[in-house]
Amino acid sequence: MRMDKVVATAREAVADVPEGASLAVGGFGLSGVPNVLIQALYEQGTGALSVVSNNCGAMESGLAVLLAAGRIARVTGSYIGANKEFARQYLAGELEVEMIPQGTLAERLRAGGAGIPAFFTPAGVGTQVADGGLPWRYDGHGGVAVASPPKEVREFDGTEYVLEHGIRTDFALVRAARGDRHGNLVFNKSTRNFNPLAAMAGRVTIAEVEELVEPGEIDPDAVHLPGIFVQRVIALTPEQARDKRIEQRTVSS
């Protein structure tokens, strides 16, 4: 493995992402979304993607760019939000969607990255999450074409738990505030949401960083994600690093 993992451009970084690949993508709402890598993937024309992410973009930003272009075939996530195109494609049967509890999604990504194939959790017991029947894909006429299967439920110390599987994906796209050439990453505040977990889950993880520094400039105690989980790093331009949208702007009276 190369110790210097810096790649010159986002286009070069995603060049080997094939049609039908699975992707774990960091971000929460508009916070910490790897927009530059997503845009490069869009310009490349890759489609039929299976995406694992908390949500699927908003305000024509992030994964919403790929979604609107019809490049996403399946989404595993926990929040649809105000993305009307997401809802339209889902109800029309154009998109397969696996909705799972947010904490379960986070742990499935972490478990996959840690080499844990499955785990038991109480979240979802007694609901369709465990019993099955959640609509993964509609038929476009109000019926359900594909429904979620039932999961194993087991009792431990008098409490029931449902079996959930760890998630591994072909690639992961994440955004960090700082990173060095070895791939060690630091995330700023709320951007440290799904980014470290998505990065762990990817077999090939690509990170866009707002500030690229030399190895040794990041205090080891300050590293949020060690470089062992990262294969490629691209440095954003100052303009790209400053381009951060606000989903809900509020001001005091």
TrEMBL record:
Molecular function per GO: CoA-transferase activity
Keywords, sorted A to Z: Transferase
Pfam family membership, one: CoA_trans
Keyword Transferase among UniProt keywords: yes
Family annotation (SUPFAM superfamilies): NagB/RpiA/CoA transferase-like
InterPro entries attached to this UniProt entry: 3-oxoacid_CoA-transf_A, CoA_trans_fam_I, NagB/RpiA_transferase-like
Entry keyword annotation includes Ubl conjugation: no
Record-linked SMART domains: CoA_trans (SM00882)
Identification of the protein by name: Succinyl CoA:3-oxoadipate CoA transferase alpha subunit
Species of provenance: Streptomyces sviceus (strain ATCC 29083 / DSM 924 / JCM 4929 / NBRC 13980 / NCIMB 11184 / NRRL 5439 / UC 5370)
